[in-house]
Amino acid sequence: MTDAVPAKGHEPSAATLPQDKKRPARALSVADGTSLHGEVLARLRDYIVEGNLSAGARIPERQLCELFGVSRTPLREALKVLASEGLIELLPNRGARVRALSEQDIRELFDLVGGLEALAGRLACESITDDEISEIERLHHEMYAFYLRRDMHGYFKTNQMIHRKIVEAARNDTLSRSYASYTGRISRIRYAANLARKRDRWGEAMREHESILDALRGRDGNALSDILFLHLRNKQAAAIEHLTDSQPAEA
User: Fewer C-beta neighbours within 10 Å, C or N terminus of the chain?
Assistant: First the structure.
């Protein structure tokens, strides 16, 4: 997905903001009982994670309010949550911008999250229930269907649910809080890593998830720990590749 890079000192109009072709922009609706705050938060998070704004780009609040059909109050509340997740940065009296990560940031954060997931996998195999494994299996098959349809949006959301379910199954609140505090920072680049042009990272990830599921079924904590860490290492390599390819060539 191509990043939209606002010209310096100029914010794009709502008409020029990029939109997911499969999911056209619409005014938010809360008819299904979802809170306005929750829906704005989910839509804004997806919008940024899926690369519609460049790393380091300012958040165009007015245009996003027009795009989502909401006032600035729920949008700003959502921005505060995304800042706490590490996806964006709030600027004193100057709005917000998408958090930019250097190659070193990516290396360190992916290794840290990989270590947390590896520990979670080991602990999960000690306590996970049959029902929890069945739910992860269901999500895995759902994710595979999105993969076959080349639906990156659905694939990524289901993929992240699987990883969270494994962390939750570890039954360790401190681990869960640490995981949540760091995984948000890499969500945007983790999504982009699937788009690396020099490798079929998306296909690789699906094959790795088959191994993750097999280790979970066998409650093999050592194997699952190793697979999850390698899974994040491979994602790290693809993320760095994508970052390098997306940077403008020097004159």
Answer: C
Closest CA to 74 of 66, 82, 65, 85: 65
Residue 29: per-residue pLDDT: 46
| Dihedral, CA of residue 236, residue 242, residue 245 and residue 250, to nearest 10 | -60
**What angle, rounded to 10 degrees, do the helices at 130-148 and 152-169 form?**
160
Above 50 in pLDDT, residue 14?
A: no
Domain 103-246 maps to which CATH number in 3.90.930.12, 1.20.120.450, 2.30.30.100, 1.20.120.530? 1.20.120.530
User: Where is average pLDDT lowest: 105-119, 145-159, 196-210?
Assistant: 196-210
Position 216 confidence tier, pLDDT thresholds 50, 70, 90: very high
Range list for CATH 1.10.10.10 in the chain: 1-100
User: How high does pLDDT run on average in the chain?
Assistant: 86
Among 231, 112, 126, 235, CA closest to 175: 112
Q: Residue 51 CA to chain centroid, in angstroms?
A: 10
